[in-house]
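From the pipeline queue, job 12 of 40. The input is one protein chain; the requested action is below.

Action: predict structure.
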Amino acid sequence: MLLRNLSPPKLCNGTRLRITDLQKNLIEAQIMTGFAKGESVFIPRIPIIPSDYPFQFKRMQFPVKVCFAMTINKSQGQTLKIAGIDVREDCFSHGQFYVACSIVSMPTNLVILAPTGKTSTVVYREIL
């Protein structure tokens, strides 16, 4: 997953990518989502300057992260074939839960991990 806006709207924060070639200063990747889906792109190392230290330093790193899960905010605007939502801890708002549930096209492809004592079917019926 891309962590920075490099060239919007093609390479935006949250874009899912498949790495095809990894070099010392460059990543070749194929875009998996959005209107540029299937297009091959090059991602350079970029300077990162942390602001949470009393001194400044710069490091060069790739703006990507291995992603097996994503936050509700990152999933907004995405379409997934299958999604699992963990609601054992409360969502920030009802809107976040709606976004999380709306990223799949079929309700049968949505799995909700609910608190003990509730089933995912009950939670799903509540959002309809």
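Job complete. The helical segments are 72-75, 94-101, 120-127.
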